[in-house]
Design a protein that fits this description.
This protein is α+β, with helices and mostly antiparallel strands and about 140 residues long. Helices cover about 50% and strands about 15% of the residues. The chain has one domain.
Length: about 140
């Protein structure tokens, strides 16, 4: 059937492969842009929800959020929003016990949880999927 139209099956296969390769490159570029955008928005959201602190120099944790985009040679790309003061993220998100210096052995007290990461993570995952589907024509 292809030969009747003046196109050989090999030419058709080459053209199809070329078109699919171009589409793949465009889609990869589009997904990378979406990752950057959602990563930056997630950083802003988590920073705005982060506790400021009560000590001198407070606000370091809140200002410590960074975005890191990594791509591997196999075509996979990931975005990570992390804090310079990573030691505090779990303590602030989940709460923790502390020791107050009262009496001979001290006294235990709890510092309440201040959730700010989990909520933004869930939002970022939903938003990323929605934007990729929209950009690639999947609805």
């Amino acid at each position: 059937m292809c030969e009747m139209a003046g196109v050989s099956p090999n030419q058709l296969a080459r053209e199809l492969t070329k078109s699919l390769t171009e589409y793949g490159k465009l889609a990869q570029h589009e997904v990378h842009d979406i990752l950057e955008s959602v990563g930056d928005e997630a950083k802003s959201r988590v920073a705005s929800l982060s506790p400021k602190g009560r000590r001198r120099g407070s606000g370091k944790y809140k200002r410590g959020w960074k975005v890191k985009i990594e791509g591997s040679g196999s075509g996979s790309t990931s975005v990570t929003v992390h804090n310079r003061h990573y030691q505090l993220t779990h303590l602030l998100e989940k709460g923790h016990r502390t020791r107050l210096k009262h009496g001979r052995y001290g006294r235990q007290a709890a510092v309440g949880a201040q959730p700010h990461i989990e909520e933004v993570n869930a939002w970022a995952q939903r938003e990323l999927e929605q934007r990729i589907r929209q950009a690639l024509g999947g609805g």
